């Protein structure tokens, strides 16, 4: 059995990691840290885990050595603790935003503070199997992309890589409330957040930089909080290159994702669920991608959806670790999602 | 089983050999309803669909 | 007292008209038609009106003559019945989509059928007080714009009229379920529609044509059904003209809407509700408009929100009728909206 | 014009009072206090009031003298400040729980602290027009009942007063999240509260005492937080007295509430809304009451619904003040509620 | 591999059965019937199954022979088709209500029609492993209880079996919209059902009879539709027998369910999730049960929660089939549920 | 590891041998916070808890 520990295990992403790890056939979670809840039972913070674990949270100071260590602590704080934790595991997987951007300048611009460990930035492999599967097989430091960034990259990659789009991309992201984590303030009070259409990032959302870094495209990104707990959907408005028709677009998606276990192409002409939406993805590791296009050389709308805590975080991290340890890529990630839900 | 091409999206559509003219099959990729026009060879045409109306 | 009748009174927009008219100090509703529910009490279909009216629905065939007749029947059907009803009222207000577009070709393209009364198209005044207040004072035929179109036009008008934007506008609209009316199919079943992020019009939504007609801009429009019963929000992505800075944009909005009773400019730097959202607008006749802009000549995101059944329909119709009959423009429309809600 | 001030105006009930008062034809709000937000604009905390008021919050220390002073501050704190505020107004209306129970022992049992102004308890009139209209005409101190208590009392009163029920009543209350106020903790975080069926008071909810005090019945009360922002519904399970049939029950309700402007009897045999529910009551001052009964002498289920911030608080307070000042009882409270919503 | 077929596979329960069966290590689904959708892909009706199956629906007339046949067709219709299907499988599992009540009179009273196959009623074993595990090991005809009945029975069984409660039980059930199935009418339109507190069965809900049959108690049952897609919660108000204290109650629950893989006792003194609620159970096969009690001999509130489509239907059926075929009882049912969700 | 009884619900609570007086442990059944009063033998007392306020 592979031994695993989770830092920041009291948060939403930490809880999701625990859920997935506890159901994994080849991994044993042996440590879950929380400073605030040290000494308390894990299933107090994560009531879905009742009956699945008797673990209690421990402080970070009590970490031993593990095969793999996941960090699900807050961005801006993670860069301070991660350097001191590298010795505690063979493989370190960071889910915060702190080691995603290769360029410390860009980090400063998007996170508003200086990076405190810029020297480590170049040492992480991006935890996106659909682009870096080979490198992940041997990576010892993995940085999992942001939830909206993952959706945006997976929507754009087939066309961007094949040179089928031109110019700037406008990304319109929508997200549920769990994306803000468990320690959120008054903006996440139920009476205020419920039924919201909150344009919290009208221009220049932070994941813009991640998507640009991965696709090579100029990206403008808007983000809105809507009524949902889990779920991210992105709409990418692109201009198709000269002569590119719908059949070319469809073929590009089909070919790019044919062998991917967790990307489905959804662009249907009938039925209620013609394009990707997160409603049917809660708990599942799928990222559904789809598209609609005008006539050749016209406009395209590319759509992706995922569960921010799964393919947008903990599930994606698990998939990377499965790859790294040579395990079946879908281990621990078999849940299909619910309909209706 | 015969493989033919979806007239809507060019995906490959596999049709049962026992299929009859006028039968409706479904494209697995774009989910168009396809009408069997001829069977030897199997030729498919897009069946008309009704648009949903999301009103305003 | 002004006498009023509502055709299509069993639908959602019809019910909203009744609610507003029953609370109006200078209007008396004397007739509400429904074919399906003829003979039934109005407050059976609209339970919020219990205690406010004892009216029963009557069939259209029993219409008399009224000062004003509202049509809230289905599009595609309204064009068939409206010609025969013109004689029943001094002023006819249509809320369906059938008499909004001046050009029958455009109607055909967007509604999928030939217009059956093309000769009447030119005889309607657009029911948008913010643009046609003067003409509305004497208009006898009024066609109220679509809910998303109203939001889009009010978001864009200040910049479009002043020539502050350039090129094509991308409109991203989000809407609640009441926008589909009371007679909808399986796509509006609670278990399917609840929690949806349904991109039902990825490209080329029908209100595109209305917005283009009113603003003179090239418009591309996407629409998504999200979790809400009432409410529309539109995000308009524009390119600002050379040298146009935030202060110019803010001034344009302020000046354009200074005297408007039902448009508020909302673009704040603090607080939970910085940009317009429909959550606080249910039942109110406000359209809130706001914006965020990049540096001079950069990108702008213009946002508008309204209640699709009020400023997006019945309330807007009432405002037009108040203007037409020389009544205070806010009569019957005083409800401020709720917070929290 | 009657001058009014609101203490605790930054809270949810405070905001609702302001909304109602600002729309009232005969009242002028001249002061809104908040300690935390002193100096800030009122419409920052209550964005629905944008365009309706330019008031800023002031601290309590700046209170002058008013015709009527509303207290919408927290229970347990209100009893400390209220004695010092009595001199600031002719009429004082308290909406907290602190002056509802006549017996300080009972207060201690239900609020967990000693009452600090027990001598004042007997000086308040209960702000329930349906029971105390006459006394309210001259009352200078009014204590508005709790939201669930109001619903429970109005459901039970017709049968209790007529001696048509026997034994103990089991009250099952369901409530939306705004009932916890604007300053709530982690239990009201959207991701935790959304979709909840939270039995937060399995036995012995605090409003039990108020309902018992008003109806003379032995009451057992359970309360559950469900998915809603506004809204309270109570189900009262009673045993009907010997020989009491449905027709007697219906007559009792009809007679008791015939002339009440804000109580509607809803017990229908057809349609979607057969029994009271808060969905159509948001923003309205109605309390709908209804019932279902077994054969004579059998079981009865009595149901009431209201908006906790309106008939369950601010609206009810307004109604009392209208009565106290001889104004039309429905002034400021005309909003009918929305359907659909 | 065990071969399985699902009749009524286009409905909500049918879809849930398919999801579970497709993830089961020892079962192969070889047939899914639908009359309405015969010829269409299964993942068109159940979009969560995209990528999991290429099956198409077939009509019932094309059924062969299977190890196990599940019926998830409508009640009142199932009794007509089931007799003709008995020959198609070694084990038949019915999820409709048609073979749950042993007494055809009772069926008539609760379903409003004569039973058409009364002779078969006595041949079914009740599909509740917590009560009939031993019989299920050899049962060839299994009738799975109703979703609210399962919750009610599991809440009551520990106290009822031990004689710790007295007199009549009042059951208050709350349910999400998926409980009405995929073919529901206008009452399930999103705009009408959303945010509802709909007391659709004020007295005498049909599952009353099932609970009474299983517990031997006199049961009165009320049911309310609340805002949720999945999820059932029941509150059972009981009178404890003389001298029964909280510790006795807790011990009874603990002992009764100690070895049950899918029942958890949840009655905590701290935290947000102190008593059972369905929010964290969507997709999982758990039924959580808990309680709150007054002093000895006082009142008790027993609470149970489950996902109506899983432990309330398809998951419970799977658990029974696992038992019947000697498979690990948790096979196919490992999903832990999500938090937050 | 020592097993002792929860003073709130009588469930068995397993306490680490290294536990110190005044430390807080949690009952797995009822989730009461329990304060360690003495360690030899281990004696637990109910720690005071704050009620959540669901307001109205
Ligand atoms: N949420 C998402 O969808 C998502 C997706 C991808 C990436 N991420 C990233 O992953 C990281 C963790 O995200 P998250 O959403 O899991 O954050 P979170 O729920 O806020 O948890 C982060 C940390 O905050 C502390 N915390 C949790 N609940 C708290 C509470 N109620 N009060 C005070 N502190 C509390 C915990 O640390 P202690 O217990 O040690 O104090 C926890 O480890 C962030 O860097 C985020 O950017 C999030
Ligand atoms: N909903 C909006 O937000 C909105 C906003 C602006 C404009 N509009 C436009 O206004 C018009 C009316 O819209 P609406 O939303 O009010 O439509 P609706 O609710 O579907 O009502 C339209 C008509 O359908 C019939 N109807 C209502 N409920 C029905 C049911 N359950 N079953 C069968 N028929 C039923 C009624 O006619 P009978 O009773 O006579 O059969 C009713 O007049 C449309 O043209 C729409 O495009 C709608
Ligand atoms: N909510 C209901 O449905 C309802 C119904 C009937 C009666 N009541 C009773 O009415 C009283 C007020 O209830 P409420 O629901 O309006 O309470 P609330 O929203 O919590 O407001 C109460 C006070 O808390 C402060 N406050 C508000 N928001 C805050 C924040 N975000 N952070 C910190 N402090 C904040 C304000 O005082 P400062 O600004 O001065 O600090 C405010 O006056 C209570 O006694 C309650 O029991 C409530
Ligand atoms: N829903 C629950 O929570 C639940 C729980 C326990 C037991 N049950 C019981 O299980 C049985 C099935 O329940 P269910 O909720 O799955 O029912 P459902 O979704 O209504 O499906 C029942 C049948 O109705 C047909 N159908 C489905 N969707 C339809 C549509 N849109 N229009 C017309 N027909 C449609 C299908 O038969 P064809 O495709 O062959 O026409 C399907 O097999 C019932 O007896 C119910 O009492 C339900
Ligand atoms: Zn195709
Ligand atoms: Zn305990």
From TrEMBL, chains A, C, D, E:
Domain Semialdehyde dehydrogenase NAD-binding: 3-139
Subcellular location as annotated: Cytoplasm
Catalytic activity: N-acetyl-L-glutamate 5-semialdehyde + phosphate + NADP(+) = N-acetyl-L-glutamyl 5-phosphate + NADPH + H(+)
GO molecular function: N-acetyl-gamma-glutamyl-phosphate reductase activity; NAD binding; NADP+ binding
Database matches in Pfam families: Semialdhyde_dh, Semialdhyde_dhC_1
Listed InterPro entries: AGPR, AGPR_dimerisation_dom, AGPR_type-1, NAD(P)-bd_dom_sf, Semialdehyde_DH_NAD-bd
Gene Ontology CC annotations of this record: cytoplasm
Keywords in alphabetical order: Amino-acid biosynthesis, Arginine biosynthesis, Cytoplasm, NADP, Oxidoreductase
Database matches in SUPFAM superfamilies: Glyceraldehyde-3-phosphate dehydrogenase-like, C-terminal domain, NAD(P)-binding Rossmann-fold domains
Main enzyme class: oxidoreductase
Active site: 147
NCBIfam families per UniProt: argC (TIGR01850)
Biological role stated in the UniProt entry: Catalyzes the NADPH-dependent reduction of N-acetyl-5-glutamyl phosphate to yield N-acetyl-L-glutamate 5-semialdehyde.
Similarity comment: Belongs to the NAGSA dehydrogenase family. Type 1 subfamily.
PANTHER family the UniProt entry points to: [LYSW]-L-2-AMINOADIPATE_[LYSW]-L-GLUTAMATE PHOSPHATE REDUCTASE-RELATED, N-ACETYL-GAMMA-GLUTAMYL-PHOSPHATE REDUCTASE, CHLOROPLASTIC-RELATED-RELATED
Protein name as it appears in the record: N-acetyl-gamma-glutamyl-phosphate reductase
Protein source organism: Lentzea fradiae
TrEMBL record, chains B, F:
Domain of life according to the entry: Bacteria
InterPro entries xrefs: LysW (IPR005906)
A Pfam family it matches: Zn_ribbon_LysW
Protein's name according to its UniProt entry: Alpha-aminoadipate carrier protein LysW
